[in-house]
C-alpha cells in the first residue's frame, strides 16, 4: 500500500482553469483510468465538483470540511486528510491523491511517489498551479511516452 500523487502539469506548472482541466488529452485520461482502477482515489471538493460523479471501479474519497454530498456505493466522504490517511492503513490497495492543488498541498508530506504527465503547453490564463518545487526530494525513476505526444514520469521519494 502506497500513497501516490498523480497529476498532469503544464510547462508553467498549471493544472487547472475555471474549475476544470485546461486541456483534453484522451491518452492521459486513459492512462489515469488504467493506473487508478482497483485502487482508492482521494480528491478535494473542487475536483469532485469538476468530475461530477464517482469514477467506477475505484473507491472515491472526497474531502470537505463542510460540504455534504449524496451517497453512492463507491464513495466515501471525509473531513480531513488525517481521516483519509487513517483509512488508508486498512485498505488493501494504493491510495492515489488526484488533486487539486489544495489537496496535493495537504498530502505533500505523505506522498511517497508522484506520477506526472508532462503537458507540453504553457497555459497563460490558468488559475490553479502546482508549487514549482513539488518534486523536491524526489528522484525520477521511470519515464515513458504515451499517445498525444505526452510523457509520463514516475518519481520516488528519496529515503
Ligand atoms: N491537472 C490535474 O492533474 C488536475 C488534477 C485534479 C484537479 N485539477 C484541477 O484543479 C482545480 C481544483 O483544485 P483546487 O486546488 O481548487 O481544489 P481541490 O483541492 O480539488 O478542492 C479543495 C477543497 O477540498 C477540500 N479539502 C482539501 N483538502 C482538504 C483536507 N485536508 N481536509 C478537508 N477538506 C479538504 C476543501 O473543501 P471545502 O472548502 O468544502 O472544505 C477545499 O476547499 C480544478 O481546476 C481541477 O480541474 C487538475
Quick take:
The chain has 159 residues and is of the alpha/beta class. It has helices at residues 26-36, 45-51, 81-88, 101-107; strands spanning 3-10, 14-16, 40-44, 59-63, 75-78, 95-99, 113-119, 128-129, 138-146, 150-157. It has a single domain, classed as Dihydrofolate Reductase, subunit A (3-Layer(aba) Sandwich).
List the main descriptive attributes of the protein structure presented here.
159 residues; alpha/beta; Dihydrofolate Reductase, subunit A; eight-stranded mixed beta sheet; two-stranded antiparallel sheet; binds NADP nicotinamide-adenine-dinucleotide phosphate
Can you put this structure into words, describing what you see?
The structure is a single chain. The protein has a single domain, classed as 3-Layer(aba) Sandwich (Dihydrofolate Reductase, subunit A). It is 21% helix and 35% strand. It is globular. The model has no long low-confidence stretch (mean pLDDT 97). It has four helices and ten strands; from the N terminus they run E-E-H-E-H-E-E-H-E-H-E-E-E-E. An eight-stranded mixed β-sheet has the order 5-4-3-6-1-7-10-9, sandwiched between helices. A two-stranded antiparallel ribbon has the order 2-8. It has 159 residues and is an alpha/beta fold. The chain binds NADP nicotinamide-adenine-dinucleotide phosphate. The site of NADP nicotinamide-adenine-dinucleotide phosphate has 29 residues, from strand 1, strand 2, strand 3, helix 2 and strand 6.
Low-confidence stretches: none
- Which radius of gyration do the C-alpha atoms yield? 15 Å
Terminal CA distance reads 17 Å
What is the beta-strand fraction? 35-45%
Provide the CATH topology.
Dihydrofolate Reductase, subunit A
Superfamily (CATH H level) name: Dihydrofolate Reductase, subunit A
Along the chain, the helix and strand elements come as EEHEHEEHEHEEEE
Q: Total domains, how many?
A: 1
Anisotropy-based shape: globular
